Amino acid sequence: MSLRLSTVILPYRRWSEGGRSAWTRAEELGFHAAYTYDHLSWRSFRDDPWFGAIPTLTAAASVTDRMRLGTLVTSPNFRHPVTLAKELISLDDVSDGRVTLGIGAGGTGFDATALGQEPWAPRERADRFAEFVALLDRLLTEDAVTYEGEFYSAAEARNIPGCVQRPRLPFAVAATGPRGLKLAARYGQAWVTTGDPKLYETGTPEQSFEALRGQLGKLVETCAATGRDVSELDKVLLTGFTPDRGRPLESLDAFVDFAGRHQELGFTELVIHWPIPDSMFAAEEKVFELIAMEALAQLA
Asked: How many Cα atoms are found within 13 Å in the side-chain-facing hemisphere of 299?
C-alpha cells in the first residue's frame, strides 16, 4: 500500500484568526486527512485558547471538499457513547462521509479530572475503553440501541439515519497494550500509535524504530489470533512523540528519509503536526509545505 501523508491541526486559534485558513490550506496542499486533538485542554496550551473538536471539524467540513477529517484521538475521559454517536453521525453527514474517528483509552491529563472525577486507574481505563468502543460501534450501526453495562447505558437510543459511510464511519484505534490491540483488531479500520512514550526523553531514534517494529509485530499477532487480516487495517504513526521529535520536519530530505524507513516498517499513514510557533510543534512553514507537496513523490 502506498504511503499517505496527513496533518493534525490543533484547535488553538479562533476560526476567523487563522483557524479556517489552516484547514483550507491543508486541503490545497494535498494532505490525505487533517485531524485535530479531542481534548478539553492540553499540556502547555492549558491556559491558552483551545476550542472543541467536533464543532471545529464541522466548520472544517463546510470549507473543504475532498480531504478526510477526524480526531486523534477521542477518549472516554469526558465523553459518553450515546451523545458522541449523535455528534459523529451529524458530522459524517455534514462532511458527506469524510470522517474518521480516532479513539483511545484516555490518560491522566487534564481531561481525566475536568468533570470532577478522580483519575481512573489503568485497569478501569482499559475496562471503560472496551465497553465504550463496543457500544459506540452498535450506536453507529443500529437504528435503536438499548444497553446496560458496567460503565455506560443506553435506553432506546435512536440514531436515524445513521452514518453516510456504511456500515459506519471508520475507527482508528490508538493502542499498544494487549487489550487495546484486540479492540483494534475487532473494531478498527486503522491502528494508531505515537511510539513508545518511555523513549521520548532519553531514547534514540534507533530504539524507537525497534519499539515500533515490536508494536507492529504485536498487532500482526493479535489480528492472527482473532481471525482478522492485518492488511485490512491502516497503520498510522502520529509523529512528534518519538526521540526524533521535530527533526524530520527540518528539511525535505530529512522527512523523506524518516518516512521511507517507517513505510518499509509497515506504516501506511504518517501524520505531521501543523506548525505552531514557540511550541513543541514549531517548524519552518515553507519546509512543512514543501514536505506536504513533494515528499510522497520521492517515495513512489
From this structure: 27
Q: Is the pTM here over 0.90, yes or no?
A: yes
Q: Which residues of 221-235 are buried (b: 16+ CB within 10 A; e: fewer)?
A: ebbeeeebebeebbb
The conformation of residue 198, written as its DSSP 8-state character, comes to G
3-state helix, strand, coil in the chain (%, to 5): 45, 15, 40
As given in the structure block, the three cell numbers for residue 48 are 491558552
Over the stretch 163-186, which tens digit does the pLDDT of each residue have? 999 999 999 999 999 999 999 999
Q: Please, what sign has the CA dihedral across residues 152, 192, 241, 17?
A: negative
In the chain, alpha helices (H): 19-28, 53-63, 81-94, 122-141, 178-187, 205-226, 252-265, 285-299
pLDDT digits (tens, 9 = 90+) for 180-190: 999 999 999 99
- The helix-helix angle for 178-187 and 205-226 (nearest 10°) equals 60
Q: Which of 136, 169, 129 is nearest to 154 (CA)?
A: 136
d(CA 96, CA 207): 41
Residue 68 · residue 61 · CB < 8 Å: no
Cβ atoms of 52 and 25 within 8 Å: the answer is: no
Q: How far apart are CA 284 and CA 275, in angstroms?
A: 7
pLDDT for position 107:
87
The pLDDT mean for the chain works out to 97
